[in-house]
Amino acid sequence: MLTLAQAQDRAQSLVDAARKAGADAADALYVCNASTGVSVRLGAMEDVEQSEGEEIGLRIFVGQRSATVSASDLEPQSLVALVDRCLAMAREAPEDSYATLAPQELLMRAQPPALDIVDEAQPDPAALKERALAVEDAARSIPGITNSEGGGASMGCSQIALATSHGFAGSYAASSHGTWASVLAGEGAEMQRDHASHSARHLADLEAAAEIGRRAGERAVARLGAEKIKGGPMPVIFDPRVSGSLIGHLIGAIAGSAITRRSSFLLDDMGKRLFDSAVSIIDDPLVKRGLRSRPFDGEGLPTHRTALIDNGVLTGWLLDSASARQLGLQPTGHASRGTSGAPGVSATNVHMAAGGSSPAELMQGIKRGIYVTELIGMGVNPVTGDYSRGASGFLIEDGAVTRAVTEITIAGTLKEMFAALVPANDLEFRYAINAPTLRIDGMTVAGG
């Protein structure tokens, strides 16, 4: 693995070589990922995995033509051949008037912010095994647990370096730690499975293995005796485990590529109120120790905190330079890319602001409804916003969670769901996308 300084130098040298060979513009991206993971099952070691890979991608522009080539061989002579191959491909590529480097005047020039996303702690496989055994033991200790799909612990690190021919050079590193368990309760056809996990940039921020395991076991046991129910229109409560998925559908609909292709159900809704005025959704790449924090985007633009939804109103699109140019707008610092293609877009650390009511208060007045803890399948049409997904969870009767339910489908349209959505006050920051408990009235529930 190269050091960050070496990676930055390698990317810059590749760009310089491309310009010298005749490219009008170029950029190079270096990515390295290394990880170690240990998994156990029924108290015995099951697997140890270690991986490390590094790759560099070169993008060359010749007029309005461009091409991208990547390689895992970083020796100087191999990179010379990479330049020649990429340049030849670019000269034969079709013209694209929107493909471009980021506007030079918008490039990050300041010192990158300190995000504290690198942890020097590097537990060895023995320590990972100990944590994996602890999380599975805790899950299996819950009365009613009858089998295990395993427990695991992991650590990883990544390095990114980007250089462009018009003046940007930057790099950063990030670390990750994780723990998980998946267990089964009951016997035979009545068996139920559930899981729990946690990830963090720093080992010190990782939830205790015993707590993760206990939660996995209790979740599985709570699902025993799950019933099929009669469907109909009713309120649906989304547990925080799954509520963030609704924000994910919003993000997909406001991505620049969806707008330029006219394949978004929100195509004509910039500046319009989509949610209640109390709802705001924030994307913040500068969160200290955030799971998706980054100092600059995939094109070298500085990242910044953005209100995607501001007091219920959709503020704009997530744009890389190509989609921004096509729409006559400015890129937003959301470009994301790998080494083998042009940039797309992605959000970073996203959360929906908490509401003013507790989850219990949200349930008050619900005569009959569904509390969803798991969603299955991807039955969402991004063009129309039609929403239909398999689900499981619990029945709500007279304002309280009661019996476990299974084999149900919840359906609606995302615009109507957004407009009806009410957040609780239990927001926690555990994932890349975080939302509190959510209530949506008027959804259609189909029983099994």
UniProtKB/TrEMBL annotation:
GO terms for molecular function: metallopeptidase activity. Residues 27-90 form the Metalloprotease TldD/E N-terminal domain. It comes from the Bacteria. Residues 121-224 form the Metalloprotease TldD/E central domain. InterPro entries: Metalloprtase-TldD/E_C, Metalloprtase-TldD/E_cen_dom, Metalloprtase-TldD/E_N, PmbA, TldD/PmbA_N, TldD/PmbA_sf. Residues 232-447 form the Metalloprotease TldD/E C-terminal domain. GO terms for biological process: proteolysis. SUPFAM superfamilies: Putative modulator of DNA gyrase, PmbA/TldD. One of its GO terms (cellular component) is cytosol. Gene3D superfamilies: PmbA/TldD superfamily. Belongs to the peptidase U62 family. PANTHER family: METALLOPROTEASE PMBA. This is TldD/PmbA family protein.
